[in-house]
From TrEMBL:
Topology relative to the membrane: Single-pass membrane protein
Pfam families: N_methyl, T2SSG
Protein name per Swiss-Prot or TrEMBL: Type II secretion system core protein G
Record keywords, A-Z: Cell inner membrane, Cell membrane, Membrane, Methylation, Transmembrane, Transmembrane helix
Length: 140
């Protein structure tokens, strides 16, 4: 009388149903946290870039232009308007990428303020609802 050892089909199915129920309860919370973490990173990066741009303007009297871009925080721009007191070593160590792998965009003069700094969002398209900029940080 050999008795087979192992799990019955019913036992395996009960375990699969329990795992499925747990996944439906946990996954939405985990996935929502990733989106929230990405938005928090964008906010922190934009604040850091705004601070560096403020220092640039204090030293040089103007913000970098859209054409000079955020790269002006790393290396002295050679195009007009040339900075008059550019800080040796630049204003920031490196330019961060947004959580979606894109560079942040600088508009100077901006549409919403003196300068607009924004992430193109997950779709990487300007002017869409998922753009996160220094003009809409509070609501995100």
């Amino acid at each position: 009388m050999n008795k087979a050892k192992g799990f019955s089909l019913i036992e395996v199915m009960v375990v699969i149903v329990i795992i499925g129920l747990l996944a439906t309860l946990i996954l939405p919370n985990v996935l929502g946290s990733a989106d929230q973490a990405n938005r928090q990173k964008v906010k922190a990066d934009i604040v850091a870039l705004e601070n560096a741009l403020s220092q640039y303007k204090l030293d040089n009297g103007v913000f970098p232009t859209t054409e000079q871009g955020l790269e002006a925080l790393l290396e002295e721009p050679m195009s007009e308007p040339r900075p008059r007191n550019y800080r040796r070593g630049g204003y920031i160590q490196r330019l961060p990428l947004d959580p979606y792998g894109s560079e942040y965009v600088l508009l100077s003069p901006g549409e919403f303020g003196d300068v607009d700094i924004f992430s193109l969002g997950e779709d990487r398209q300007a002017g869409t609802d998922d753009d996160i900029g220094n003009w809409n940080l509070e609501g995100n």
